[in-house]
Amino acid sequence: MRLAVLSDIHGNIRALEAVRADLSKHSPDVIVNLGDHVSGPLQASATADLLMQEKYVNIRGNHDRQLLDRPPEKMGPSDRAAFGQLDERHKAWLASLPPTLAIEPNILLCHGTFASDLEYLVENVVGDGVQLAPVDQIRERLGHAALQLVLCGHSHLPRRLVVQGEVWIVNPGSVGLQAYDDTGTSPTHYVEVGSPHARYAIVDWDRQGCRAELIAVEYDWESASKDAALGGRPDWAYALKTGFALRAYWTS
């Protein structure tokens, strides 16, 4: 089985269209999308419309949940910007998405971890950044289920690793946002991929094992950056253009 794995689109329709065009070369059997579909100052409504018409296997991310579980005045600016574009169809679609999903008995999808959409599965916050967690901590976060392949997102950092020779973990990285500062959790920290390319993964899964390719795709990030700037988000504008966080700019 060949899986195309997407995550963390964040309303970046340009990046999503570029990824869609590129993944068509790989002829995936299934396309999975691991959450945080629309949050941000870009094209939330258009992104939701596109995803709703496709036969992707979608799950819910923390920002998708936050668009539904609180009033706009209690949202952060990225969620609030997206919320203003969404209609009741979009909200109903987001509400229908599961937080985790098994697409086969030993293949599980999650946004963060199985316990929380706000936790990183394979990273720890260290200082004002993140780094790969020790293997025993990753195993603890996986729990005791008989897993062979876990597809996760949330950190926006492309990863492929094998835990103790047993469990493959693949994070495709983010389709739509290659750097951010996280002020919603403690401690506050930055995540930076280091280039503006849209990211996704192709995973081949069969009796011979797992083969995972992490893919970076060029798209018109200059225009995406300009959209973010027009939306009053210099932090997003810088991140979209460079893949690095604008460290002098903090928001809540």
Please summarize what this structure is.
This protein is of the alpha/beta class.
Could you walk me through the main structural features you see in this protein, from its secondary elements to its overall organization?
The protein has helices at 13-23, 44-53, 62-66, 77-83, 88-96, 135-142, 221-230, 234-242; strands at residues 2-6, 30-33, 57-58, 100-104, 107-110, 123-126, 129-132, 149-151, 159-163, 167-171, 179-182, 189-192, 198-206, 209-217. The strands form 4 sheets. It has a 5-stranded mixed beta sheet. With 252 residues, the protein is an alpha/beta fold. The chain is 27% helix and 27% strand. The protein is globular, with a radius of gyration of 17 Å. It has one domain: Purple Acid Phosphatase, chain A, domain 2, CATH 3.60.21.10. It contains 8 helices and 14 strands.
Summarize the topology:
Blueprint: E1 2-6, H1 13-23, E2 30-33, H2 44-53, E3 57-58, H3 62-66, H4 77-83, H5 88-96, E4 100-104, E5 107-110, E6 123-126, E7 129-132, H6 135-142, E8 149-151, E9 159-163, E10 167-171, E11 179-182, E12 189-192, E13 198-206, E14 209-217, H7 221-230, H8 234-242
Parallel strand pairs: 1-2, 2-3, 5-8, 8-10
Antiparallel strand pairs: 1-13, 4-5, 6-7, 9-10, 11-12, 13-14
Helix pairs in contact: 7-8
